[in-house]
Amino acid sequence: xxxxxxxxxxxxxxxxxxxxxxxxxxxxxxxxxxxxxxxxxxxxxxxxxxxxxxxxxxxxxxxxxxxxxxxxxxxxxxxxxxxxxxxxxxxxxxxxxxxxxxxxxxxxxxxxxxxxxxxxxxxxxxxxxxxxxxxxxxxxxxxxxxxxxxxxxxxxxxxxxxxxxxxxxxxxxxxxxxxxxxxxxxxxxxxxxxxxxxxxxxxxxxxxxxxxxxxxxxxxxxxxxxxxxxxxxxxxxxxxxxxxxxxxxxxxxxxxxxxxxxxxxxxxxxxxxxxxxxxxxxxxxxxxxxxxxxxxxxxxxxxxxxxxxxxxxxxxxxxxxxxxxxxxxxxxxxxxxxxxxxxxxxxxxxxxxxxxxxxxxxxxxxxxxxxxxxxxxxxxxxxxxxxxxxxxxxxxxxxxxxxxxxxx
Length: 408
Prior knowledge:
408 residues; alpha/beta; 16 helices; seven-stranded mixed β-sheet; Rossmann fold; formyl-coa transferase, domain 3
């Protein structure tokens, strides 16, 4: 039994940030009911190629959808129609949590806003996730990860520095603002669940991609707030630690991650550069940061004399942190990834066996569960309407004929 197996989540969200949060809750045992528009569903079902192939070789959902929709049941309801909205409100009365990521004010038109639903279910936790939150001058703006990476400062510190060929602000290779927001959102919901269990009270949660991205600036934000330094783009270098970057080797690239003075001394011994550790310009990290250019200029040609494998063997023997830059296929082939079982196989209703990225949560007593593969659109409509709302077959058929619901 998962830690959240007693919790029911009504998930009105789509795309990535909020679905990523609700997938975490589902992995921890919660029953997650995903409401989708009939015939369309979550936009990420079309974010391809690549697409899944069903067992007849026909095109299925985009693989993007698989990212954040495990352990959910898909119920296709058109809540733009009054009858559909009424069904969703009935489900909300029987839920512990509602999660949505529509623009501010959108769901009030359908009676699915926090004020309406808490009147029918005072213990309800209502989590709203938007680009900029429900207050401030940008509250009505749409928020997408790419925009938030730019507006939230991340792109200003990502990419090659000015003056270097190819220099320009760069986004991160995954939708990191969405993912960080999803993690914060899952934490916020679980905190609200603890409060709900203690007091019986529900509450509203107002999550914003912008807020979470700014929080995710971490040390770079503090470099400005407390250090008075406006960070800039440094490529693969670190603003506060040296040497902590990528170096070209004779056959590729290597990450060197020296985080303290002891590691630097061991690095110098392992590479025959003991004179550098004795040089007062490089004896401490603060001095190395102050003399970054001179030090890196001396290290760069040294690394080109050996291959990746040779450097990793020598530096790991000296207990100096370093490593390769793996492609995604190499990541999953890595013995560590295999030992940690970072791939989980599930049975998918349309495509048969399906490999997914496993949850990284490792709990001794209540580990993540893999109960449901990402669902087909409307796969569970009949089941949920029957088991939770008590609708009979004739009522379900009437709703389907009226195009209020979609059945699989």
